[in-house]
Write a structure and sequence with these properties.
Radius of gyration: 49 Å
CATH class of the largest domain: Alpha Beta
Helix content: 40-55%
CATH architecture of the largest domain: 3-Layer(aba) Sandwich
Shape: elongated
Distance between the termini: 92 Å
Largest sheet: 6 strands, mixed
């Protein structure tokens, strides 16, 4: 109600009250006709003034519709203020989140290589600094927002816009730093792959000089070295040529002119034939080159095979105790090691098939038949060695004899192909990796990769090896083989060999 109208209304009421009081005061005093007229006129004037003021006041009182409209306007203002507050809250949350992300990125960058950590950390700190340079938002509780003037509200809105821009700038800087870091890592990875895993050359494209000697085909060893990017050198004994070596920074193969045994990448390997010197030129047998040397010098296998199901064969069993030394029986230890290997393989997610799980004796033919039936990806037969000489000790790994080759302790040339010969190259690599792994895990004597006409691996339907984990005839080694700790080492060595073979497949 306007102030002037209220004052008029109050004055009229006061006049009415005054007249009433005066009339009451003189009630007991006799009045003349003139006085009665004056009293009546005064009362009428006062009533008229009050009614006029009340009428004017009534005209100025807002209606229900006007009150509802005013309430709606106030609600809209309150909603607008609430929206502004929500926006400010979101900006604050975004700022906190971006600062946390920047801090996490800085912590991760700090853990990287020392040469790159300083630059990455500086970039992250710079990004965080950009976000932190914006003043924090003012207190924006409901009371303060409600009491904000339009100017203050506009100022807060401008601050929020500035903070959002700073956050976007910080995020862009961090993304640029991450992209730079990723590009550097990819470049380093590409460089590493290029320098450590060059592409293998196809044997069919190699130019190799060949000769035939005593019905055995040989390839020129210098040519082999050239095709693999290796250096060739003769080895001498008492100033006489005793063999040769081909090598680079990561690969090395040693050959002898007198014996079949040599060395490839630190593991003893029995070749099928000794190295040959013909017309003062070095040669190795073609079958050694194709089925033994080439698979061990390659970075990747040319034949991609699976490695999900493994058949584990515990040698001997039942009525066949195998080698014995007093109470020590080969069949007992082969089954113990096979079960330990089964447990570890299954933990790693492999499917394992056992040729026997108890003291039974599947025949050699039955074991080979199981391999053909279940079609595993690998076949591993576990045995213990023995000798009438009590001195020998150590680990040997056998693969099937390739066609055109001979047994390690024999001279008869194999002429008939078996199913196992389909995998000669993979057999060599599998034998190499397992022999290498077992020697490293046990510290045992390396007695080499050998060739023997063993029925179960010759007739296998997948890459197959037979491991001789040690000599029961050796007093010290038989105690190791009987030990659970040493058996676990043997298993660890086989697993390491499988891991190496798996990397060769990929």
């Amino acid at each position: 109600m306007p102030k002037s109208l209220l004052q008029s209304f109050l004055a009229a009421c006061a006049l009415f009250v005054s007249v009433s009081v005066m009339a009451q005061t003189v009630t007991d005093v006799p009045l003349s006709d003139a006085d009665v007229k004056i009293k009546s006129a005064a009362q009428n004037a006062a009533q008229n003034a009050v009614q006029s003021a009340a009428s004017e006041a009534a005209k100025k009182i807002p209606t229900a519709e006007e009150i509802a409209a005013e309430r709606a306007r106030l609600e809209r203002m309150r909603a607008a203020l609430a929206a502004e507050r929500a926006a400010l809250e979101q900006y604050k949350a975004d700022l906190v989140k971006r600062q946390q992300e920047a801090a996490a990125a800085a912590a991760k960058a700090k853990a990287e290589a020392e040469t790159k950590a300083a630059a990455e950390k500086a970039a992250a700190e710079k990004a965080v600094g950009s976000a932190g340079s914006v003043p924090p938002p003012a207190k924006d509780d409901p009371v303060s927002i409600r009491n904000m003037s339009p100017e203050e509200l506009q100022r807060q809105r401008q601050l929020a816009i500035e903070r959002a821009k700073a956050i976007e700038k910080a995020v862009a800087a961090q993304r640029a730093a991450d992209a730079k870091k990723k590009a550097a890592a990819e470049k380093a990875a590409a460089s590493t792959v290029q320098t450590t895993t060059p592409k293998d050359k196809d044997v069919a494209t190699m130019k190799l000089r060949k000769i035939t000697q005593n019905k055995v085909r040989y390839v020129h060893l210098r040519d082999v070295a050239v095709n693999y990017g290796l250096t060739f050198a003769y080895t001498k004994n008492a100033n006489k040529i005793s063999g040769a070596v081909i090598y680079d920074k990561t690969r090395k193969a040693i050959f002898s002119t007198s014996y079949r045994d040599g060395m490839v990448n630190g593991v003893q390997v029995y070749f099928l034939y000794p190295m040959l010197i013909k017309n003062n030129e070095p040669y190795i047998s073609e079958v050694d080159f194709l089925t033994c040397l080439d698979p061990l010098l390659r970075y990747k296998t040319p034949v991609k095979l699976g490695m999900k199901t493994i058949m584990v064969d515990a040698g001997h069993g039942g009525s066949d105790p195998g080698a014995m030394n007093g109470t020590h029986k080969e069949k007992v230890y082969t089954l113990q090691i096979a079960k330990r290997l089964q447990t570890q393989l299954e933990k790693l997610g492999f499917r394992v098939i056992m040729t026997r799980t108890g003291d039974t004796y599947p025949t050699l033919q039955e074991r080979a038949a199981l391999c053909k039936k279940y079609k595993p990806d690998l076949f591993i037969s576990i045995h213990c060695n023995s000798s009438t000489n009590k001195t020998p000790a150590g680990i040997e790994t056998y693969r099937a004899v390739p066609v055109g080759g001979t047994e390690t302790k024999g001279s008869k040339v194999k002429t008939e192909k078996q199913s196992g010969n389909e995998f000669d190259a993979n057999n060599s690599r599998l034998a190499f990796e397992i022999q290498k792994g077992m020697i490293a895990a046990t510290g045992g004597t390396d007695r080499g990769i050998r060739h023997q006409a063993i029925y179960v691996i010759g007739n296998a339907s997948c890459p197959a090896v037979l491991v001789e984990v040690g000599y029961l005839s050796n007093a010290a080694e038989v105690k190791k083989i009987a030990s659970p700790d040493y058996q676990n080492k043997i298993v660890s060595g086989i697993l390491a060999g499988l891991a190496g073979y798996g990397s060769f497949l990929r």
